[in-house]
Amino acid sequence: MKITDIEVHVLVSPGFRADGTSSSQDDIVVVVHTDEGITGIGETDTGPWVAKAAIEAPGTHTMDLCMKDLLMGEDPFDTSALWEKLYTFTCMTGRRGAVISAMGALDMALWDIKGKAVGRPCYKLLGGAHVDHLTPYASLQPYGSTVDEYGSSLVEWAGKAKDYGYKAAKLECTLAGPYNHSGLKGTDEQATEIVRACREAVGPDFTLMVDVQYLWFDAESCLRTVRKWDDLDLFFLETPLRVDNLEGYEILTREAPMRIALGEWQNTRFEFSELMDKGVQVVQPDVGRIGGLTEAMRVCQMAQDRGRLVVPHCWKTGIGIAASAHMAAAIPNCPFIEFLPAEMCDSHLRRELVSEPLVMENGVIPLPDKPGLGIELNRDALERYAWKP
Questions:
Q1: CATH architecture of 3-119+380-384
Q2: Would you state the pLDDT for residue 199?
Q3: Higher per-residue confidence, 356 vs 188
Q4: At what angle do helices 268-277 and 246-255 cross, to 10 degrees?
């Protein structure tokens, strides 16, 4: 089997908010074609125009070649060898960032082809399932023009998630900081009141996580607040500090009263090695952004060897959700995956891009049983939301 063509699609959700902080408003989707008529689908969570250029831009020397050209004529089964080829011959421009994210979309599509070619779900090719179902958590994004409205919205969403059948939810509690898209100017004390109200609303047997979206500048500012959350039994605190403050994260992993989770923006095993060296207890690889299933599985193995948990980040469409699910099934150290059903999403892309996406039943997600990633593109949606300059 040989790769014959690669389509690259940039998609934009109508009515997107330029002042928002949700990357589900746009997407890049790749479709890899082969000479046997089997196609693979992939996506990644980065700027789609930049990723498109990373895949299609020509190069003039061996340190900065065109990724599309590098894959033409290759056997899609050679995933590890092709990953190394792409990494090596884009190294001057790449190594991290959008180039690795674009590689992730391509690698995801190659695994989809492999599964379809042999008639097996991807997790079977990744080593087989360690579980017979996956446990999802709901990512809750509140709204409101005042802190009180924002807090009430989050409490309401937490109750809805529990009523829907979820056993776990993650609270976005971002009243300040660089990604405070609500425009509110709340205090750490008000955040504490909101998180406490959510715990009271869902009761002690519901798993709660909190994402503050890189809120604090230094570890001590974070600790002054989160030490007051000790009795709230939080499963983890996500991204409390700026992404490159590794020394601060080392302090938090020693002194915070809950696990620290990080990794949604990281590329490659090399950056995750840095996180785990600093003691981060929960790593959050995004399958597309990390470099695809090939690289994600390497990170999962590293985490297993070090006794760390893996809870993947996934905030795009049913394509990335499917890839996360296959990865999660194939490892023993993944207690939850991020998942929202279509009816709880506000993004057209998340609701419509994939036909027959994964579903939650009685609070869990049954393992996918279709070949490859197990999903199909809705070509009507692909055309409807195509970016037209």
A1: 2-Layer Sandwich (3.30)
A2: 98
A3: 188
A4: 50
pLDDT at 131 over 70: yes
**Structural contact between residues 370 and 355, judged by C-beta atoms closer than 8 angstroms:** no
Asked if residues 251 and 216 have their Cβ atoms less than 8 Å apart, the reply is: no
Domain boundaries, the chain: 3-119+380-384, 133-378
Domains 3-119+380-384 and 133-378 share a fold: no
Which candidate, 252, 179, 184, places its Cα nearest to that of 212? 179
Beta strand pairing call for 259-262 and 282-283: parallel
Residue 20: pLDDT above 70? no
% residues pLDDT > 90 (the chain): 89
Neighbours of 63 (CB within 10 A): 13
Instruction: Kindly list the catalytic residues.
Output: 313
Whether the pLDDT of residue 244 is over 80: the answer is yes
CATH number of 133-378: 3.20.20.120
Cβ-proximal residues to 34 (8 Å cutoff; 6+ apart), any chain: 1, 2, 3, 4, 40, 76, 113
Model pTM score: 0.96
Contact (CB, 8 A) for 351 and 151: no
Beta bridge partners of 309: 282
The tokens describing 70, both together, are 């590098």
SS3 for the chain, per residue? CCEEEEEEEEEECCCCCCCCCCHHHEEEEEEEEECCCCEEEEEECCCHHHHHHHHHCCCCCCCCCCHHHHHCCCCCCCHHHHHHHHHHHCCCCCCCHHHHHHHHHHHHHHHHHHHHHHCCEHHHHCCCCCCCEECEEEEECCCCCCHHHHHHHHHHHHHHHHHHCCCEEEEECCCCCCCCCCCCCCCHHHHHHHHHHHHHHHCCCCEEEEECCCCECCHHHHHHHHHHHHHHCEEEEECCECCCCHHHHHHHHHHCCCEEEECCCCCHHHHHHHHHHCCCCEECCEHHHHCCHHHHHHHHHHHHHCCCEECCECCCCHHHHHHHHHHHHCCCCCCCEECCCHHHCCCHHHHHCEECCCCCECCEEECCCCCECCCEECHHHHHHCECCC
Q: Please choose, from the candidates 314, 322, 318, 267, the residue with its C-alpha nearest in 3D space to the C-alpha of residue 295.
A: 267
